[in-house]
Write a structure and sequence with these properties.
GO cellular component, one term: chloroplast thylakoid membrane
Oligomer: single chain
Radius of gyration: 23 Å
Strand order of the largest sheet: 1-6-3-2
Strand content: 15-25%
Order of helices and strands: EHHEEEEEEHHEEE
Structural class: alpha+beta
Distance between the termini: 15 Å
Keywords: Membrane, NAD, NADP, Plastoquinone, Quinone, Translocase
Protein name: NAD(P)H-quinone oxidoreductase subunit M, chloroplastic
Subcellular location: Plastid, Chloroplast thylakoid membrane
Number of helices: 4
Shape: globular
GO molecular function: oxidoreductase activity, acting on NAD(P)H, quinone or similar compound as acceptor; quinone binding
Length: 212
Amino acid sequence: MAAISSYMACTKFSMSGWIGGKREMRKRNPFSISAQQQQAAEVQEPQEVKVQEEQEVQKEKMKQQGTPLRPVEPQVNVKSKNMSREYGGQWLSSVTRHVRIYAAYIDPVTCEFDQTQMDKLTLILDPTEEFVWNSETCNKVYSYFQELVDHYEGAPLTEYTLRLIGSDIEHYIRKLLFDGEIKYNMNARVLNFSMGKPRVLFNHDGQPQDVQ
């Protein structure tokens, strides 16, 4: 499959940078502990270490399985709308060769852009169809995208934050290519091999097998 696909995720990014709000500095309260409390803490420390180890094991299992996808519910009668005037009415996006991220709801059928829904990020994967994708590899990219969105929770909603996410996804796509999970689409309109020349595998008879 070499068709363009997309995925939408809800965000919890900070909007203070857009509305001119100032972040309140939290006061740092001094922390002290008595000798008795310290002894009790030392007794509880082995139990806490054990709990932390169990949590690390659980996180490692979840990492291997990938972040669960939480796609946005489909909407009907979506109309293209610009950002409101208080946000400048401008685009908020990050565009690279294989990853396009927009702070908007984009109808996957009609391609209508509703940029007033800034709590949603839409990822358009490989718009030039340079690689061959299947549902498994697409979901791997979407899962990593969801993981990055969760990781940047609370970060300011700016083009810089979106570029950080887009750059990480580009590196992840390169990894998928080098691991042989995706390959170049030899039927693409333009063959420029943006992530390096393809590797040709040879069988025992010296005949080429496939291009990655």
